[in-house]
């Protein structure tokens, strides 16, 4: 019987990370292909993927989209200083804002960092000034325009 390490609280092992790496490169990779490449039985590969899903490590499958090719050519990082304990307020306020592609609570000079992507500079200005800076939880903001970027969507296998 297979060990149930993914649901027992233990971290994923090397084979689990290799599966995650393969799926991050091609979310449509078949269980058969994964099993063959990792020299596992199909049943073992299937069970490992199922355990990774049950444990919340593997949360879903998605397409990787080039934002510029999709028409979102304007982007910026927006750094925010928040009022005390307002992270939850910010998260809730921006939950349905499609231009905010990533939101993170951070330590250091700022409290939060947002990645904002829009079609035009005018849209970017409107999102920042009208939607983000107008929030009562935001004390101040600083914007850094992104001229070029690269995102790595590959899950790297950690070294042991």
Automatic annotation (TrEMBL):
Residues 12-73 form the HTH asnC-type domain. Keywords: DNA-binding, Transcription, Transcription regulation. Pfam families: AsnC_trans_reg, HTH_AsnC-type. This is Lrp/AsnC family transcriptional regulator. It comes from Nesterenkonia halobia.
């Amino acid at each position: 019987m297979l060990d149930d390490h993914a649901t027992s609280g233990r971290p994923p092992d090397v084979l689990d990370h290799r599966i995650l790496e393969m799926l991050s490169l091609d979310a449509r990779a078949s269980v058969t292909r994964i099993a063959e490449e990792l020299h596992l039985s199909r049943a073992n590969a299937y069970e490992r993927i199922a355990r990774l899903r049950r444990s919340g490590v593997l949360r879903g499958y998605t397409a990787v989209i080039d934002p510029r090719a999709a028409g979102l050519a304007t982007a910026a990082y927006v750094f925010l200083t928040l009022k005390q304990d307002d992270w939850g307020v910010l998260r809730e306020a921006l939950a349905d804002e499609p231009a905010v592609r990533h939101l993170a609570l951070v330590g250091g000079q700022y409290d939060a960092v947002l990645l904002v992507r829009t079609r035009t500079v005018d849209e970017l200005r409107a999102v920042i000034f009208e939607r983000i800076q107008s929030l009562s939880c935001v004390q101040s903001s600083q914007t850094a325009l992104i001229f070029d970027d690269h995102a790595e969507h590959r899950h790297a296998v950690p070294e042991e």
